[in-house]
Amino acid sequence: MSDVVSSYEIVPSFPFYLTRMKFMQNLFRVGGSKSLFSLSECVEMDLTDITQNLPAGAMLHVFVVVALIFIFIAYKLLSRLIRRTAERLGMEPHARNALRLLLRVLTVFSALYLVFSIYNISTTVFVSGSALVGALLGFGASQTINNVVAGFYVLITQPFKIKDYVKIGDLEGQVEEISINYTTLYTPTFNVLKVPNTQVMNSRILNMTHEGYIKYTFTVGFSLDLPQEVIQERCLIPAVNEFHEKFGEGQLRSPEVFFDNMDRLGLNFLIRFFIPKGDAKLLYVLRPELLELINKCWNELKKQPA
């Protein structure tokens, strides 16, 4: 054991080394293996020696990477805090989305400011280089910038909010998120669709959400075999009543039926659904159920004598 203790006389008498020496002595006493203790002496290296052997400027790069990781972790923690606080206070989904977007923008600017400050990048260098970068990126960069501008336009004008059910051009769905670049829709195919904000800004927008309901209207057509009054009174209304008794459960408003128009192909009726806001999945599930009941009543009506 004296040989073991004397081997530490060359080590500076800092508390860290003393603690390490005591730990290795205890390990030697318990394990009783001099080979294990000798191996630990060989692999130990002072952290100062490691940093001194790094290339010039490497520590600066390491510091930048660590700082960026810290910013990313802070962003994740703040995002979780915003979500929990918003749920506790009962904030509207649109307000939550705006806070998340603001946090995202601040995080990006903080990271850029950190990099520019640490590397002492002059703003004149940035300005002079931006022209070259813009020329290289060309059309791709302009599309990105247009998306960002359109995103702020959608957020400021608010043609729709989070959880609204909208139709954007030929696309429709429930708005799940409005970011700088995209508007995310939950579509009738139970998929998530990201629509570029430039397309949103250049399209006609139909917002079907009013007074806390998704007021969804669709068309049902019938042949000219029977009069309009007979179809409405003996097919559509009974199907709607059966649907409401089966799925209403006292929470859903009963669908409404309207005669729309008549052409050479048949009679067209409008069916209007009332689904609570933010529950588009219920709409996607119940609409086929109502159509099935209407089809059943229509087949039974055609079998009846005129």
Structure notes:
This protein is α+β, with helices and mostly antiparallel strands. Among the domains are: 35 residues, no CATH class; 91 residues, Alpha-Beta Plaits (2-Layer Sandwich), CATH 3.30.70.100. Helix content is 59%, strand content 18%. It is built from 11 helices and 9 strands. The strands form 2 sheets. The chain has a 5-stranded antiparallel sheet. It has a 4-stranded antiparallel sheet with strand order 6-7-9-8. A hairpin with a 2-residue loop joins β6 and β7. α2 runs antiparallel to α3 and α5 packs antiparallel against α6. The termini are far apart.
List keywords for this structure.
single chain; 306 residues; alpha+beta; Alpha-Beta Plaits; 5-stranded antiparallel beta sheet; 9 strands; 59% helix; elongated
Short description:
This protein is α+β, with helices and mostly antiparallel strands. The chain is 59% helix and 18% strand.
Question: Topology of this protein?
Answer:
Blueprint: H1 2-6, H2 15-31, H3 34-43, H4 47-53, H5 58-89, H6 93-118, H7 123-137, H8 139-157, E1 165-168, E2 171-178, E3 182-186, E4 192-196, H9 197-201, E5 205-207, E6 209-210, E7 213-222, H10 228-247, E8 256-263, E9 266-276, H11 280-303
